[in-house]
Amino acid sequence: MADDTPSDAPAQAPPPAVAGDGPEALEAPGEVTTTVTTTTQAKTKPVAPRDDLVTTRHTLKVGRKSLHYTARAGRIVLRDEVTEDGVFRGLKPRAEMFVTAYTLDETDPTTRPIAFVFNGGPGSASIWLHMGLLGPRRVLMGDVGDLAPPPYGLADNPQSLLTECDLVFIDPVSTGYSRAVEGGKAGEYHGFTKDVESIGQLINLWVTREKRWLSPKFVIGESYGTLRGTALTEHLQSRYGMMLNGLVLISSVLDLASIDFEKQRNDRAHALYLPFYAATAHLHGKHGRRSRDSVVAEAQAYADRDYPYVLSQGARLPAKERAEAVVTIARLAGLSEDYVDRADLRIEHWRYFGELLRDQRLTVGRLDSRFTGPAASAIAEEMDADPFFDASDGAYTAAFNHYIRDELDYVNDLPYQRLAEEVHPWSFKEFEGRPIDVSPQLERAMRKNPHLLVHVAFGVYDGATPPAAAEQVLALLRLPEHLRANIEKCYYDAGHMMYVHEESRLKQSADLAGFVRRASRLTTP
User: Fold this and answer.
1) SS (H, E, C) 407-421
2) Whole-angstrom distance, CA of residue 455 vs CA of residue 429
3) Where is region (Disordered) located (predicted)?
4) Domains in the chain, please, with CATH?
5) pLDDT per residue over 183-204, tens digit each?
């Protein structure tokens, strides 16, 4: 596990100010100030970290209306309480977390909803949801068959969720510009519990400083961010007494065993991926004139009943039944019967992406199977790169790096870590000996706060967190019917980041706006 402590930003970044060595209160966000340090005997006293938020003001045109809003970008210092023999000795800086926040001007913060947003990974910064779906500016990358070339572009986003709620985009420690402080240990944050606790601490700090305790509050997560967001929702309740109005799970995975092919004898994922394989095979012409819905429905029925039974029988399965299973799985997944037979009826997803269009020397995207790319080798067992990530990475990275400096005036010479490999191996020590599953936390959160609404977004062509896996986990929640009714689901004809598909982006934006309005339950006293 990486345990390096990155150095602070160079002098030309918004400079941190000196904090005292002794006990001190948390600094509220404010104007950036410059600190002068003195040098004694060729040694410079370390500069203690301080918030470096930069404020800018903007206007977003929505129809005939102009929305005026304030943006703040920068790092907020997280501090831990220090006690000795039960006596409070002060607050010690531990990490600097980067946020980009948007608040609509001339609104009442006690009634204006606010959403806290992050992506997943683990190790991902928040630029994907920020620049692709929710923020007031969005990247122009195009879509399948019409991808934009470099240097890409930005446009206003009149469908931004800012029309309904204030937004705070959070980069976990070691992602974006977030870092452990000098002398700290970044590795402490590269694990399930500390990750949730640090983001919870930041949210509590923001809500308190900004006087948002009476605002309707939301958490929005994508991918691993749905696992994080679910645990965080329960953590905010138990640690801070903070009740949310809504939890948004985009490309959800609450139980990692549902998508894990690596555990020995875990056949669950093989069955749960079959509907995704069927949808992908249909998209790429493997099912003739049949409708996608009928193909996926057949695959779902087989995955629910026959497929788990067939896999569970192993060598006990009669030859005739095995032969029938080979034919069915191959037909639904769009693969050859010979391949399915040699794979012992088990289609691992990385191999599927390289196998489906092997005869065309193409690989299929994992994050979005609508995307294809040339195979590095016609005989490789797995694909060597995800065509969707290759298509989207440059556009999002260029857009954000321009936007944060040129439009939000935040300057920092640290590399913006959109994907931080150093967080791996991610620690799940809390789950040793049991599945990595946060559905019990969701159950507890919904029982404790029966007003909590949950929105789940699925991408039909998502091969990272396939819909059937998430649907099964939701179906197994131990909740009474009146609480189960608080969960709503939306499907989109795209992949993991469904908002790269323009039609899906527009629909998803409208769906989320409606969800925020319903969950906020704003009434006039």
Assistant:
1) CCCCCCCCCCECECH
2) 29
3) 1-27
4) 105-257+393-520 (3.40.50.1820), 282-382 (no CATH)
5) 889 999 999 999 999 999 999 9
In 4-125, where do the E strands start and end?
39-40, 43-44, 54-62, 65-84, 87-104, 114-118
The answer to whether the CB of 277 falls within 8 A of the CB of 355 is no
Classify 455 as helix, strand or coil: strand
3-state secondary structure of 142: strand
Tokens linked to 512: 């989320």
**10 Å Cβ neighbour count for 444?**
14
- DSSP state string for 322-377: HHHHHHHHHHHHT--HHHHHHTTT---HHHHHHHTTGGGTEEE-SS-TT-EEE-S-
77 in Cβ contact with 177 (< 8 Å): no
Instruction: State how far the Cα of 308 lies from the Cα of 394, in Å rounded to an integer.
Output: 40
pLDDT tens digit string along 6-61? 333 333 334 333 333 333 333 333 333 333 444 444 556 667 889 999 999 999 99
CA distances from 12 to 5, 100, 413, 416 (A): 20, 20, 7, 15
CA distance 480 to 484: 6
CA distance 112 to 107: 7
pLDDT digits (tens, 9 = 90+) for 366-418: 999 999 999 998 888 888 899 999 999 999 999 999 999 999 999 999 999 99
State how far the Cα of 55 lies from the Cα of 71, in Å rounded to an integer: 6
- What the block records as the tokens of 386 is 């995800």
Q: What is the spatial distance between Cα 347 and Cα 181, in angstroms, rounded to a whole number?
A: 45
- Distance between CA atoms of residues 229 and 248, nearest Å: 8
Task: Name which of 159, 133, 164, 236 is nearest 494 in CA terms.
Answer: 133
How far is Cα 182 from Cα 417, in angstroms, rounded to an integer?
A: 18
In 3-state terms, what secondary structure has residue 310? helix
Instruction: Give this prediction's pTM.
Output: 0.90
